[in-house]
Amino acid sequence: MKKPWAGRFKEETAGSVEEFTESISFDWRLWPHDIEGSIAHARMLARQGIISGSDADKIITALREIASELESGRFRFRKDLEDIHMNIEAALIRKIGPLGGKLHTARSRNDQVALDLRLYLRAEAAGLVGMIKRLQRILLRLAQKHAETIMPGYTHLQRAQPVTLGHHLLAYVEMLQRDKERLLDSLKRIDTLPLGACALAGTTLPVDRAYVARLLKFKRVAANSMDAVSDRDFVLEFLALGAILMVHLSRMAEELVLWSTEEFSFIELPDAFTTGSSIMPQKKNPDVAELIRGKVGRVYGSLVALLTTMKALPLSYNRDMQEDKLPLFDTVDTLKSVMGVLTDMLPRVKFNRKRMKETAAGGYALATDLAEYLVGKGLPFREAHEVTGRVVGYAIERGAELHELTLDELRGFSPLIGPDVFDLLTVEKAVTRRKSGGGTAPEEVRRQVERLRKAL
Ligand code: ARG
Fold first, then answer.
1. What tens digit of pLDDT does each residue of 293-327 get?
2. Distance between terminal CA atoms of the chain?
3. CA-CA to 337 of 20 to 30 Å: which in 232, 253, 396, 431?
4. Which residues have a Cβ under 8 Å from the Cβ of 237 and sit 6 or more positions away?
5. 3-class SS at 154?
6. CA–CA distance, 244 with 265 (Å, rounded to integer)
7. Which residues are catalytic?
8. CB of 110 closer than 6 A to ligand 1?
């Protein structure tokens, strides 16, 4: 098939080159945006008198027919036509003849592909914002339900202080809140119309870019045509924020893996979201959570891949940039599937409150409470820390928990300790008394749930 650009060529493109340079096998999914952009472009050309109104009408009608062929799967993609842009243009010319060739007036695939990508990402980013919100709502519901569920809080994966499960879950709501903000912020920069930049330098024809921007609902028009066709910052930004979002989801996934072990036994994952072993009949494996953790690799990989592709590219468009699509599409697909499966699974996770609470009490997790008790009695914190440390050392030797020591034993370390200390040495007190802003107390957790619910 003759290429739309074949004029100056004497030889046909080598088969291996067609295979090597094509992008239709993956950029076909840009078709709805390509059509949308072309319709707006045709309307602008007619409005500016660059083509006639009736030509534009014919072009637009044919583009709509092509869209319905694409929609229904009747459209045949051709690799020898390289990409989605030339596939659609060739179909247009097949339908309405040379008149179809007017559509590409004052346009280049360089600004066209930048436009398609922006339209695609604008829609996908908005969808992802919705998915993040859904996940946040599920976490909020769980946090509300478990505002009083006591569990061990960890630092260094060593038991640190008792916390409430609601508090722990709200930490993820906060992370997701930042992810959402980053996504919304990136939308501001996606929202720029590159069309009209043409190949790189603009055009001699009297185009109206602001009109196209209005039709396609872009807030801004790219100010510099060379930047417009060279810029993939918006893709890089998306990959970067996607990588950070995956950091958060992988941390949650890791905790689901850990908590579902026999050793922790904090949760039971729903059967429908686990898999068995082909050899060990007793196994119930947290594959979903593991795969969420595992898929982080490809998202980081995509970010690094595109950063590397874009590095040191001379202005303006270079074919290297065609390599932006696979990492972008893969990241969008990965994020959507991860968020989707997590949203399905989380409401069905069973939390073992009894086990969590029992575990929270052990490991001298109330030592800080004893130290703060001594501070309340007027001891400087450093000394209180030292005294409590000695009490813990003593208790370890005795094989006893702090509340199991007698008042006399405790007073041996500090005369400031009175019988009221025993009221405080319980996990319930440890959490309910931590009502400082953002703290773990059920009362505070409920307040945070309310605040976040309003923010959503
Ligand atoms: N398929 C190309 C891409 O994805 C479209 C732009 C091609 N432009 C060009 N001058 N070869 O980047």
1. 999 999 999 999 999 999 999 999 999 999 999 99
2. 54
3. 232
4. 186, 189
5. strand
6. 29
7. 156, 277
8. yes
According to the CATH classification, is domain 110-207+227-357 in 1.20.200.10? yes
- Tell me, in angstroms, the distance from the centre of ligand 1 to residue 322's CA: 6
Amino acid identity, residue 161? Q
Q: For residue 362, what pLDDT is reported?
A: 84
Any atom of ligand 1 within 6 Å of the Cβ of 109 = yes
Q: How is the chain split into domains, by residue range?
A: 15-105, 110-207+227-357, 362-446
Measured CA to CA, the distance from residue 192 to residue 189 in angstroms comes to: 6
Q: What is the tally of helices (H) and strands (E) in the chain? A: 19, 6
Task: State pTM to two decimals.
Answer: 0.94
Q: Which helix (H) or strand (E) element contains residue 393? A: helix 381-398
79, 109, 323, 329, best to mutate for ligand 1 pocket (most atoms within 8 Å of CB): 109
Which among 268, 424, 434, 443 has a CA at the least distance from the CA of 356?
A: 268
CATH class of domain segment(s) 15-105 = mainly alpha
Please give the Cα distance from 29 to 24 (Å, whole number). Answer: 9
In this structure, whether the domain defined by 362-446 belongs to CATH 3.50.50.60 is answered with: no
The token duo for 339 is 């968020």
